């Protein structure tokens, strides 16, 4: 297990926030190690529950890294502290984005992937707020930088977001399209999104809007799947499709 902390500062402010990340759970590949994916839990959860589910998937060539978010006050919960990758208020395109929290978590995730062997393909996936974090990392990968301007060091090969949303969607298209290199990276990054049509926590419309925002920004290698009558949870059919998609996109051997 591992514990990490990041202190993020801004040149224009003296206030600094320290983020203490919780325990990290690792599921080792049962076969040849071909890919490593950091999988991110939802609000108030931890890495343990997802590591148990991921271990049961028929993907023997993937190493799964399941970190635990810092415990922090969350505006959405009236300031109640719980594990969260960033602070979130109401789910709205007009709401403020916690850039500092997003960047700290994105850097923590990238740090895991930076030590993987060069022949191993790397990706990020997540559920709910974890999916939001995965999609933010996807935009940082395409732009080549975090929101604070520091370079993003990882070449992601796959991103999965289940029952989530896209933070920082405002202005994303303009940021991507002014750079040929960013537009090229965005167009080539495979993204899989899944969302239940009866989701009462992160409404289905936010999944649709996220897919639309990514698409018009230039993330054209994107698949969006809806699950009729499903709420804020995953079902075996969805996880089967995640397995098939990862196997194809990452070129995995012997996964079945």
From TrEMBL:
Domain of life assignment: Eukaryota
Domain Phospholipase/carboxylesterase/thioesterase: from-to ranges: 25-248
SUPFAM superfamilies named in the record: alpha/beta-Hydrolases
Gene3D superfamilies membership: alpha/beta hydrolase
One Pfam assignment: Abhydrolase_2
Name of the protein in its database record: Phospholipase/carboxylesterase/thioesterase domain-containing protein
Organism: Hibiscus sabdariffa (roselle)
